[in-house]
Amino acid sequence: MSSFMNTMGIVGSSLTAERFRMDMILQNISNSQTTRTPEGEPYRRKQVIFQERGLSFGSVLKDEQLKVERGGVRVTEVVESQRDFRPVFDPSHPDANEDGYVMYPNVDLTEERIDLMAASNAYDANLTALSIVKALALRALEIGK
């Protein structure tokens, strides 16, 4: 039964990470027109960095001694994109510079939509995997009857 729990833990970690990724993408979309943040510059696109969770040789050896199984994914950091801001000529905008240009965030809505679809598909795939693991666990319990 522990292998079922381990598998559910792996899928659960992926669901959590993909949900966080979707939240960051939605934050990027909602701030795509934010020309001034508290830091005084336009909003910068945020990207989520994933890392494999706990499967190095040393951790596997240690976990084997403790009989703890691991795996999955975790979010290690959120980084800001260093791409240039997008200049738009609008001299009437309050954030326009002396040349009449407003610097808009480095958020590309098409790229965000594609990333959102990818995160959503990964989330759905993990939900499918979770339902399969649950069905297998239930069948395994029925064998003992």
Q: What amount of the residues lies in strands?
A: 15-25%
- Biggest β-sheet: strands ordered side by side in the sheet: 1-2
End-to-end Cα distance, whole Å, is 16 Å
* Alpha-beta content class: alpha+beta
- Backbone CA Rg: 22 Å
The count of strands amounts to: 4
Instruction: State the low-pLDDT regions, or none.
Output: none
Give the SSE string.
HEHEEEH
The helix count comes to: 3
- The percent of residues in helical segments reads 40-55%
Cα shape: elongated
Oligomer: single chain
**Major sheet summary line:** 2 strands, antiparallel
Summarize model confidence as the mean pLDDT: 87
Please tell me about this protein's structure.
By secondary structure, the protein is of the alpha+beta class. The chain has three helices and four strands, in the order H-E-H-E-E-E-H. The chain has helices at residues 2-30, 57-66, 109-143, and strands spanning 46-52, 73-80, 86-89, 101-104. It has a two-stranded antiparallel sheet with strand order 1-2. The chain is elongated. The two termini are 16 Å apart. The model has no long low-confidence stretch (mean pLDDT 87).
Which secondary structure elements does this structure contain, and how are they paired or packed?
Elements: H1 2-30, E1 46-52, H2 57-66, E2 73-80, E3 86-89, E4 101-104, H3 109-143
Antiparallel strand pairs: 1-2, 3-4
Characteristic key phrases:
single chain; 145 residues; alpha+beta; two-stranded antiparallel sheet; two-stranded antiparallel ribbon; 4 strands
